[in-house]
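Students often ask why inverse folding is considered easier than folding. One informal answer: many sequences map to the same fold, so there is more than one right answer. In these notes we will look at a single instance of the problem. The structure comes first.
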């Protein structure tokens, strides 16, 4: 069975990794399973699994995941293979690229959004920046 045909099950209650509210981390994060950030993260996040940004979470990153649930704040580019959910306390600044986008009433979005069609095979955020050319 091809990866694209395989249905992925995400469980927000089954977290395999966690940054607590008093944690600050800078760098590149990759993981299997579900990961939750309630602290501060800056850098790059790459996974085909689920990322949850808790209400106290603040993320400044280029994110490439299977599925993301946003209850806190994120700044950067979000590429989700399956879905992006912005809950009522979520705040997004940047860009969202995903086939499915769910935005709850009360959330804050200051973002360019591309939703509704499957995203092409994922390339690294650095490759995407190279394709876009120099910023003005």
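Output (designed amino acids):
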């Amino acid at each position: 069975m091809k990866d694209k045909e395989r249905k992925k099950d995400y469980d927000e209650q089954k977290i395999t990794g966690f940054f607590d509210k008093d944690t600050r981390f800078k760098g590149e994060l990759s993981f299997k399973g579900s990961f939750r950030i309630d602290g501060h993260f800056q850098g790059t996040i790459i996974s085909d699994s689920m990322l949850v940004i808790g209400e106290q979470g603040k993320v400044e990153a280029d994110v490439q995941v299977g599925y993301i649930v946003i209850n806190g704040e994120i700044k950067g580019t979000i590429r989700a293979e399956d879905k992006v959910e912005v809950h009522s306390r979520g705040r997004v600044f940047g860009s969202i690229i995903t086939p499915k986008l769910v935005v709850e009433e009360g959330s804050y979005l200051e973002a360019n959004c591309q939703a509704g069609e499957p995203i092409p095979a994922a390339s690294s955020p650095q490759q995407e920046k190279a394709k876009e050319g120099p910023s003005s």
